[in-house]
Design a protein that fits this description.
With 309 residues, the chain is an alpha+beta fold. Helix content is 33%, strand content 23%. The longest helix is centred in the middle third of the chain and has 20 residues. 31% of the residues are buried.
Length: 309
């Protein structure tokens, strides 16, 4: 059971045509917000829905053609989301996923939608997880909603923060503390965190922490390069992105190092970049100063939690 201010939520994900890759409908129990998610094949089915021919906002998402391994999104709004998203989709070739956001009772006004659009763009820029395709960034201060309406739209955004990651889009998720507070010394911003390390026979050393399901390799960690090991295509693209963005830079030893902390979606992705080849990160990463693997540590944590319950 949840305690304190944290409560469980029921998210309803309905497969409209019965296919996991087809049109999907997402809602949160007790919330009027209504999301439809589609790829290119189900796009026509989505825009034909009556619920999409309403005032609201939308997101087009796909691989960034200019940055390997990155995601690009476009955020828009309209009195008829169906019409506006069709226009935007025709102008953009990068998108693979389309998301429409309206309400089940059609109670969003043009002002509400424009406010949500501006705030979504603002929050996406702050999170810095994706490339924003928008050429202009509307100012929320220009959309002067009544105080009560602003409060309602901010609550609407709280629910969007919950449901968007469930349908595969993390664009609003704040960066982990170890990344967001990178101007502070690593020891200060990771106080209390369990640290993991890779110490390779070549002499390289890398350090990482885990925070809210993300595995963060800290600045100063070293990376092997040009080893000739087999590298998974996804990890190779990710490493190329880190090099292009100057996250990985040459070190004095002739290797590479992390100039800034970077958040990975798994220990294996982090290990693959550090060791320049596909690796099982659950075994490669060990609790700093010990021989306990990440896998064994995780199992011990689960057993401890069960005992406490």
């Amino acid at each position: 059971m949840s305690t304190g201010d944290t409560f469980g939520r029921t998210i309803q994900l309905f497969l409209v045509d019965g296919k996991p890759t087809g049109l999907r409908k997402a809602t949160i129990h007790g919330w009027t917000g209504l999301l439809f998610v589609s790829g290119a094949s189900a796009f026509g089915d989505m825009t034909a829905r009556n619920e999409v021919d309403r005032t609201g906002v939308y997101v087009l998402s796909g691989p960034d053609p200019e940055r390997a391994g990155a995601t690009r999104v476009y955020i828009g709004s309209g009195n008829s989301v169906a019409e506006r998203i069709k226009q935007s989709a025709l102008k953009r070739e990068f998108w693979e996923t389309a998301i429409t956001i309206t309400t089940s009772d059609d109670d969003l006004s043009k002002g509400h939608a424009e406010y949500l659009e501006a705030r979504l763009i603002e929050l996406t820029l702050d999170a810095a997880r994706v490339t924003l395709d928008n050429g202009t960034y509307p100012d929320t201060n220009r959309h002067r909603l009544p105080e009560a309406d602003v409060a309602n739209m901010e609550q609407f955004l709280i629910n969007l923060r919950i449901v968007l990651p469930v349908i595969g889009l993390d664009m609003l998720k704040p960066q982990p503390r170890a990344v967001a507070q990178s101007t502070k010394p690593a020891e200060e911003r990771t106080t209390g965190d369990v640290k993991f390390e890779i110490r390779h026979k070549t002499g390289i050393s890398a350090t990482a922490v885990e925070e809210e399901g993300e595995f963060i390799v800290l600045e100063g960690s070293e990376v092997l390069a040009d080893t000739g090991y087999v590298q998974h295509e996804t990890y190779a693209a990710l490493k190329a992105k880190l090099l292009a963005d100057d996250i990985l830079v040459p070190s004095a030893s002739g290797r590479l190092r992390f100039a800034r902390p970077w958040s990975f979606n798994s220990p294996s992705a982090a290990a693959a970049v550090v060791l320049d080849g596909s690796r099982n990160g659950r075994n490669e990463w060990k609790v700093k100063g010990s021989k306990q693997t990440y896998h064994d540590w995780q199992q011990a944590q689960a057993a401890k939690q069960e005992a406490e319950e």
